[in-house]
Structures are given as C-alpha cells and as structure tokens.
Design brief:
Elements (H helix, E strand, L loop, with lengths): L18 H12 L8 H10 L9 H15 L6 E5 L5 H10 L3 E5 L3 H12 L6 E4 L7 H8 L4 H4 L13 E10 L12 H11 L8 E9 H7 L9 H9 E9 L7 H4 L1 H17 L35 H10 L29 H47 L4 H22 L4 H18 L20 E2 L11 E8 L4 H11 L3 H15 L1 H4 L5 H8 L5 H7 L10 H7 L1 H13 L6 H4 L21 H13 L8 H7 L1 H5 L12
Parallel strand pairs: 1-2, 1-4, 2-3, 4-5, 6-7
Antiparallel strand pairs: 5-8, 6-8
EC number: 2.1.1.-
Organism: [Emmonsia] crescens
GO molecular function: methyltransferase activity; mitochondrial transcription factor activity; RNA binding
C-alpha cells in the first residue's frame, strides 16, 4: 500500500476547547491510515459531516430524549440496531433510557471508534455488541438475523406469513446516523432504502415495520421532509407513502431559505395550528429550545422615501442589502439625484468611496421598494383567490351531489367570474416575475389548505407536525455542522400494504413486486416532471381511455379535476356562451337537462394541477389501475417505456447529493 503524503493528513479537525473534541482528536492522531479510508478522507469527512457527526453537549441528547420520551415507552426493553453510532454518545443515552434487551452497534470504522465503543461492550452484564460490518452492504441486515444476533426477533413469524396482516414491530428500534454518505461506489441512499423496505418488509422490517430515528444533515432532512411544495421530490413521496408520521425532533429553525417561498400568512396559520396541537399533546419544550420566528425583510423606508412597510420573510438577497446599508459613509438615498452634467467646480460625492457598492445598494433598494409594493398587492389578492377556490369547490360539490338548476349554476358562475376579473385587474400592473412569485405563494397556500385535494388537510407532512422541532445550533454537533434528528413512524395500514395483503392471499406476490417497482418509477416523476400536469402523465399510461373514464375508475383523482364549466368561467368568451344559455333554455330546469356536458370532464381537466400536487396514495391508485387495465404490464421495463426510462432509471439508486432526490 502506498504511503499517504503528510501534507494531506490534516491536523486536529476539532477545536481544542472542547474536552470531547480533544479526546477524538487524540485518538485520530494515533490511528494508522487505512487503504479504503485514508486519514485525509476521514478527517475531512468528520469536518464536513460526511461520516459521523456526534452530539458533544449532553443537554442536547437529554432534550431529544425528553421530547421523544412519551412515544418511547412502547419500546421499553426492545432490541436496538444502531447504525454508524460513531463514538456512541446518543447511543449510550438512548440505551440508558430504554434499557434494551440487546443493542447492536453496526460501526465499520474501528480505526477511529473502537476505543469509544469498547468500554460500552466491556461493561459488566453489557447488552452491547459491536459488529464491524458495513451498513451500506444490504446483506448486513440479513446476517444480523441469520447469524442469531437477535434471537428473540427470529422467534416471531415473518410479516408475510401472518394471516392477520402487517403490523408494527415495537420490540425493535433502529437508531441511524445518516450523515454518512455512500462509499465504495455504492450510489443509493441508505435511509431511502430503509423506507422502501417497508413496502415489501425486507431488511429489518421482516417481522413487522420498525421505527427509525435518524440523524441527518439539515439539507438531507429537507429532502425527506420538505417545507414547501416546490421542493417536494421523489424521496419525500416515498417517505410519505411508507410512514404515517415523520417528525423533526430537533433541527435548525433559523433556516430562512424556504420562509419566503411559503409566505408569511401561510407560515402564521401553520404555526398557530402547531401551537394548538402541541398544547393538546402537552408537549414540553426545554428552555432555549423554542423555534425562532422567521426573520423579516428590511424596511425600505429606513434608507429611502417613507413607504407603508409590509412584513414578509427575509430573502437571501436581503442580507447583501442589509450589509451594504450598514456602511456609515453611505449617501442618503432619500436625497434626489441632481439632473444634468455636474460642473467641473462642483464638489464630488465625499461619501462615495466605492461607486460600485453605491450603485449596487441603489439597485437593491429599488428592488426592495418594488417587492414591498408587490407584497401589498399580494395581501389584497390572496384572500380573494382563497375565496374563489372555495366557491369553485362548492360549485363542484353542487354538481356532484345535488341536481342544481341552471339558475343556481349561473349564479355561482357569475360570482366566481366577477371575483376573478377583480383579481386580474389588481395584478395587471405587476410584471411577469412578480406574477410568477404570486403563483408560487398561492400554490403553497392551496396545498396547505387542501382545497383542491378535497381532504382539507395539508399535502406536506411538515405542515402536519405535532410540534415545532427543538432549536439547535451548529456548535452542538461535532464537527460544527447543522443537523436534524428525524423520527420515522412506519404505516402498516398504507394502501400499498393493503394491496400487498390481497396479492399474498391470491398467491401473486410477483405482480405486487412489479407494481412496487413501477410505483417507485412513477414517484420519480414528482422529481423529473414536477412542473407537468397530471394529464401529461396519465395520457401515455392510458392512451385509449378518456380522462372522464379514468376519474370514474380512480375516484381519488376526482378532487383534482376541473369540470368543463370551470374552464368556461376562466374565459371571458366562453363565459358569455354560458350566460347565453339562460336566453335559450328555462333557467329553472336542471343543469343536466340543459347541458349535461357542463358537469363532465374534458381532456384538459387536470391542466392546472401539477404532478407534485398528488399525494403518494393517489399515485399508488394510478399504479393499481394501470396494472388492472388491459394495457397493464408484465415486466418492469414496461413502465420505463411509458414514462421515459433513461432519466428516471438513474434514480433507482439515488443519493441525496445527486440532485435527483
């Protein structure tokens, strides 16, 4: 083995002020470099959070257990599979809290962590067992059971052999440090594989679905638990399908990049709902762990003309404006610019040493003023858009459940059309960039209210959180890198598992496995085709069927479809045709007798609903219908041919860092 140059071996990667950091640094300095894991890689991995981030402060571990405490009672005296425990700080705390029957430490980095894990395994009557296996090798999880490391688990009957159906396995708990990235050419994300294993009860789910408590980087946490719909990707759809609850126990509440995308009004409503749930659940938040409210944008009236300030979340470019306006030599932006060419004798600007900075702050200030003005219009238009959505939902409900007369339908239609014209007039002065931002804000609000889905529940699991995550600082992890603790509670009653039970009874497990592969591929469209409408996905899957026929076969699609009458309301010309019906027909007649097609669906009925708006359960219903239709599939490649396999196929083993998550 070739020697590693001394230049690439970093010095102590931890600040010496922390006793625990110094201990790890001292151990690492004595360890010989490894062929597969050279010293520079491990050190930089620890520094960047690529291998194992530890919890240096005892208070954070205690606070996490206090928050998880009520839900951990059912796991008392269980078995624990501990993946990448590192130095075992959080592992030891959880161990002392639960008093487990057996605690397996799956840690391959013995060069660096053996001295930390060895005292745990050598304690008198220790329940710990260190297995230096690679958790990224999926055979590891088969060997755990086959080699008898968890004998009490193997006494349980496998899930697929039970006639009563799938259940959760509270006698087993998985603790995983997922700040480790795939190594040795493996490209899949391990945590995503854990979640996918719920669908076919493989890995450690073979005796019942197992709860997973994972430590993730903040970026990866937002991939699996997105805060905004625009960031909902395939990984999030898989997590939603596999779990009944995904809760961020602790994390960085100051991450502001998504606050402005959510919108202040939606943020406020979401926080109030969480406060009610937290109060109802009697959740206790330790002192200093309260989530910080979103930072607000700067007031343009401070450095320019006075304007009515509209509160809104701060955006990333606001930091540049704030930094530039702190310059004491900044000229007064309120002073009007002089017109004409200045004379040679006139004094130059004494306060403007850097003209480029001055020009930049002027441009940013102008942008801030326009943004403030846009926000004022958005605040006026938003409640009207929400009211329009509710009126449209009422009209659809009326057409489906009652027998309304032409007069009733026209009354609703005229009201909706008038409000739409009013909103259109309000926003007519805004440019395309502002209108695009308003559309994004309304998309978040509609998915939060659940009006389009018919459930009146938020689409994102983040918006259903029982409480705010405990606020943490980056210096509470070692090395200093922001992380989140996520609690994944599996769902044994999901629609996928219910379908599996039917195929087990019918002895057609092969068909179910094909459906699962197709399902994973279809969920990939949430990433690759997230801007496309649902219709663009359904047409190639069901080329010989109309949208109206599909809605009858897949009832969960109905709330997302817009009947023909709503499309007529959107157009001024078509609205005139609709009103003209009152001149040629009796307005007291039922609408079905006057024009039954108004309540029907045409081929563009899903035009306003994007793929990323569909819940995971609806995507599964589409797969079930596709499998049962005459144009179903017999091989996994069939779904690739329909949806375009090249780009989606690459996501079979996705890692969060690939950008496809």
């Amino acid at each position: 083995m070739s020697a590693i140059p001394a230049l690439v071996i970093p010095k102590s990667p931890f600040p010496p002020c922390n006793a625990f950091s110094s201990a790890i640094s001292a151990v690492m300095a004595k360890r010989p470099p490894s062929f597969n894991q050279p010293r520079s890689h491990i050190a930089s991995s620890l520094l960047c959070g690529k291998f194992t981030l530890q919890l240096p402060k005892a208070e954070l571990g205690d606070d996490i257990l206090q928050r998880l405490g009520p839900s951990l009672k059912k796991h008392s005296s269980c078995d624990i599979i501990d993946v990448f425990p590192g130095a075992g700080l959080l592992s030891a705390k959880l161990h002392n809290y639960l008093k487990p029957r057996r605690h397996l430490l799956i840690e391959p980095n013995t060069n660096y962590y053996q001295s930390f894990l060895k005292p745990l395994t050598e304690e008198p009557h220790s329940c710990y067992k260190h297995l230096p296996w690679d958790p990224l090798d999926l055979k590891t999880y088969d060997d755990i059971f086959q080699q008898g490391h968890l004998p009490e688990q193997t006494k349980r009957p496998p899930v697929w052999s039970r006639g009563s159906g799938c259940t959760t396995n509270d006698t087993l708990l998985v603790l995983a440090n997922m700040t480790a990235k795939p190594q040795y050419g493996k490209t899949y994300t391990l945590l995503l594989r854990y979640l996918e294993a719920c669908f076919d009860q493989t890995l450690f789910h073979r005796y019942g679905l197992v709860r997973v408590i994972a430590l993730l980087s903040s970026d990866d946490a937002e991939v699996l638990l997105p805060r905004v719909v625009s960031r909902r990707r395939r990984s999030a759809a898989i997590a939603e399908a596999a779990c009944t609850d995904i809760t961020e126990v602790a994390g960085d509440s100051a991450r502001e990049s998504w606050h402005s995308q959510k919108g202040l009004s939606t943020l406020d409503i979401s926080r109030k709902q969480v406060e009610k749930r937290s109060k109802k659940g009697e959740t206790v938040t330790p002192a200093g762990r309260d989530a910080s409210p979103p930072e607000l944008a700067p007031d343009p009236g401070k450095h320019g003309k006075r304007v009515d300030y509209i509160p809104r979340p701060k955006r990333p470019w606001h930091d540049t404006y704030i930094e530039l306006t702190r310059d004491p030599n900044l000229p007064d932006l309120r002073a009007p610019a002089r017109r004409g060419r200045p004379s040679l004798n006139s004094p130059k600007r004494a306060d403007t040493n850097d003209k480029s900075d001055y020009g930049k702050v002027v441009a940013l200030h102008r942008r801030l003023v326009h943004e403030n003005r846009d926000e004022e219009l958005f605040r006026k238009a938003e409640p009207k858009i929400i009211h329009i959505e509710k009126l449209e939902a009422e009209l659809i409900s009326m057409l489906q459940t009652k027998s309304p007369t032409l007069a009733d339908v026209l009354k609703h239609a005229e009201k909706i059309h008038a409000e739409k014209l009013e909103v259109e007039e309000q926003l007519s002065s805004r440019n395309s960039v502002a209108l695009s931002r308003f559309d994004a804000l309304m998309e978040e609000r509609m998915c939060f209210d659940g009006v389009r889905s018919g459930t009146k529940e938020p689409l994102l699991l983040w918006d259903k959180r029982p409480n705010e995550p405990l606020d943490v600082d980056c210096d509470e992890f070692m090395p200093n890198n922001m992380c989140s603790v996520i609690d994944f509670q599996p769902n044994p009653n999901s629609t996928t598992i219910q379908t599996q039970q039917k195929h087990i009874k019918n002895k057609t497990p092969h068909t179910y496995h094909l459906m699962i592969r197709a399902y994973r591929h279809l969920m990939g469209t949430v990433t690759t085709h997230n801007q496309r409408s649902i219709g663009e996905i359904l047409r190639p899957m069901f080329p010989d069927r109309s949208m109206s026929n599909l809605i009858q076969s897949i009832p969960s699609l109905a709330p997302f479809a817009r009947p023909k009458i709503l499309e007529m309301i959107d157009s001024k010309i078509k609205m005139k045709r609709l009103i003209s019906l009152s001149e040629t027909a009796d307005i007291n007649k039922r609408i079905q007798d006057v024009d039954p097609e108004l309540a029907d669906y045409d081929e563009n009925c899903f035009g306003s609903v994007k793929v990323r708006h569909l819940p995971s359960s609806v995507l599964w219903d589409i797969i079930v219908e596709w499998q049962g239709s005459s144009g179903g599939f017999e091989a996994e490649t069939d779904i690739y041919k329909v949806l375009g396999g090249a780009r989606l196929k690459r996501m079979e083993g996705e890692a969060f860092a690939t950008g496809f998550a």
